[in-house]
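I have been asked to look over a protein record a colleague put together. Alongside the sequence sits a line of tokens, each denoting a local backbone shape. I have pasted the whole thing underneath without changing anything:
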Amino acid sequence: MSVQHSEPAGIAWWGDGGIVRREVAPQLGWLLIIIVVGFAVVWPVAQLQVRAFAEGGSAFARMPRIGDTIWTTVVLAVASSVLAVVLGTLLAWCASLPRSVRRAGELAPLPPLIVPAVAAVRGGSSCSRRRSAT
């Protein structure tokens, strides 16, 4: 007596444990999400570019310092990338240290999250005092 195995629906490929099967339907859901989010992000940007380059790019000609703007953007992108790599490396290094030192590494990322909120509250309260005094 032999047992017959029915073939499950899906795509098959070789994995670590032999042949692996996955259903196609969940993949279509992810594909739909990617298409919708991609469209929601790309469409407005594409519309802005079409309008900017309409009439031979005259929108850029009306911007007297576009070169300075592009240069500032490039400098900020490079500087923030270098800073992120350095800080990420230091935090990863802190994670490999003993527990007493690791505590400082766990707390180090928090001030950039806290300071803007504190500054906003403090700045808003000092502005309201100035208005009421005048």
Remarks:
- The chain has a mean pLDDT of 76.
